[in-house]
Known about the structure:
Blueprint: E1 7-8, H1 10-17, H2 21-28, E2 43-44, H3 45-53
Antiparallel strand pairs: 1-2
Helix pairs in contact: 1-2
Amino acid sequence: MEIRGPFYNQKEAARYCGYSASAFADKLRSYDLPRLGPNRNRYARSVLDLWMTDPDQFLPKPIKKSRKPFQVHV
């Protein structure tokens, strides 16, 4: 994935994607969109375009459970 700007804060990214700020925040809970910048509060337009085209690509990866249960030795 090539990451290119411009870069948007969350409110600008929501507007770019056609969402309200609150709806976009709700979406972010379900998807792992890369957050960029020194404060990790920017979204690249190239990533937003890809997310709107193929959102499944940004679904969180499932956590694999170990086959053996964790055992505590006392």
